[in-house]
Design a protein that fits this description.
- The protein is α+β, with helices and mostly antiparallel strands and 400 residues long.
- The protein has helices at 12-23, 48-56, 60-65, 103-117, 164-168, 240-249, 301-317, 324-351, 356-369, 390-396, and strands spanning 2-8, 28-32, 45-46, 69-70, 73-78, 81-87, 99-100, 120-123, 126-131, 137-141, 147-157, 174-175, 180-188, 196-202, 207-214, 218-226, 261-262, 267-270, 274-275, 280-281, 284-286, 292-293.
- The protein contains 10 helices and 22 strands.
- Helix 1 packs parallel to helix 7 and helix 7 (301-317) packs antiparallel against helix 8 (324-351).
- The protein is globular.
């Protein structure tokens, strides 16, 4: 059987594409090696623009089934003192309310939605070879060891940040130097507010604490920090005490986490962006982390993946030309990823530079933010839909 699309990877990107294309009547096959998705630590916060993308894809039910917990507010603290608060349910705030959500849970519900839309899903199967071309094909080893070859009009590479497909086909990958790291853990017994996300800045040591509560006193907590302090210093179960102390040092109220227990691994990752310019060639399109990995410190990973899915879907629905449509997606992908990359670079410069120059830059910016909140980059609400020209840079850096 010849398929319209074969998705290599059944996570959020692959399952999202499969769901969208199958709903439009396409014949779609999904190959997913994992029989059960595991805790990846990263990707537990769906920003406003990601929620909007999910809704446009018809995945609001999948968010709810995965236990997506609305985060009505964002509270920002500097050295323990609360500053700006954002209320997403304020009628004057146009942005969708973000969701704190289990990444593996969301993967499962989106994959189930793809199957319900008519896609065929094979789990426990591994793609061992991809042959690009006008009618690209994949070689698959099934769960019981059987080997088959399937062809399609389009192969979608959605096999993650360590994409084998990207490597096999010789896509050029650009990677930033290491600059920031993110350490995360799932905690039970959280006693803080569960209707808001909380961000605690500890500028003297260049650390950011992120609290994303879910239902039932469960919390996904993160520490963002500079790579030059060592990624391993907050990774592994023997470093959980250091993680909690970093939270206290940044001003997290002790009562919030006095009774917490680990409900998953503590893991830290380098956050350097990597991307593939124009992630399409010879009948193969890359989406999600296979196309571009956004620094997880800024929480845009799931939102960026859903943007990829929606843009690829729209390109496919706009024409019957299955060769031209992926290239239209790739051109648009390069534009919005470049904007997001620039915005995240600016934020890293503004908030993780603890040199005297960095402190002076923040002082200049904060002196103006109190009377003009538009000077803060709205990575949660607008994501890549913001200007990144020199005028915008000067505005966000308080230089105008």
């Amino acid at each position: 059987m010849t398929w319209d699309a074969i998705c290599v990877g059944g996570g959020l990107g692959g399952a999202g594409v499969a769901h969208s294309l199958a709903k439009s009547g396409a014949r779609v096959l999904v190959i997913e090696r994992e029989t059960r998705f595991r805790d990846r630590v990263r990707g537990e916060y769906l920003e406003s623009w990601g929620v909007a993308e999910a809704k446009s894809l018809g995945l609001e039910g999948a968010m709810d089934e995965a236990g997506g917990h609305p985060s009505r507010y964002i509270d920002n603290y500097v050295m323990g003192q609360r500053g700006a608060q954002r209320d997403f349910e304020d009628p004057n705030d146009w942005a969708e309310t973000p969701r704190c959500i289990s990444h593996p849970g969301f993967q499962e519900t989106v994959l189930a939605a793809a199957r319900a839309a008519g896609a065929e899903v094979r789990r426990g199967a591994v793609v061992t070879e991809v042959t690009p071309g006008k009618s690209p094909s994949v070689r698959i080893r099934g769960e019981r060891g059987e080997v088959t070859t399937e062809s399609a009009r389009l192969v979608v590479g959605a096999d993650g940040r360590d994409s084998k497909l990207r490597r096999w086909l010789g896509f050029s990958e650009l990677r930033d130097p290491n600059r920031l790291c993110l350490a995360g853990i799932l905690l039970e017994g959280y006693d803080g507010p569960d209707d808001r996300s909380s961000v605690f800045w500890n500028f003297p040591v260049a650390e950011e604490i992120l609290f994303f509560p879910r239902a039932n006193h469960t919390l996904r907590a993160y520490v963002g920090f500079r790579s030059d302090t060592g990624v391993s210093r907050l990774s592994g179960k023997d470093k959980i005490g250091d993680f909690i102390r970093a939270c206290h040092s940044a001003g997290v109220p002790k009562a919030w986490i006095a009774n917490v227990k680990a409900a998953g691994p503590l893991a830290a990752f380098e956050g350097a962006d990597s991307r593939v310019p124009h992630p399409v060639r010879e009948g193969v399109a890359l989406v999600g982390d296979a196309a571009a990995c956004s620094d997880p410190v800024w929480g845009c990973g799931m939102s960026l993946t859903l943007r990829d899915v929606r843009v690829l879907r729209d390109a496919q629905l706009a024409t019957s030309d299955w060769e031209a449509a992926p290239h239209a997606y790739a051109e648009e992908h390069d534009r919005y990823y470049a904007r997001l990359h620039t915005l995240e670079d600016w934020m890293a410069t503004l908030f993780f530079d603890n040199s005297p120059e960095g402190e002076a830059r923040r002082a200049r910016l904060f002196a103006k933010v109190f009377s003009d909140s538009t000077r803060l980059i709205d990575i949660v609400g607008r994501g890549p839909d913001q200007e990144v020209d020199e005028r915008a840079r000067r505005h966000y850096f308080g230089e105008d």
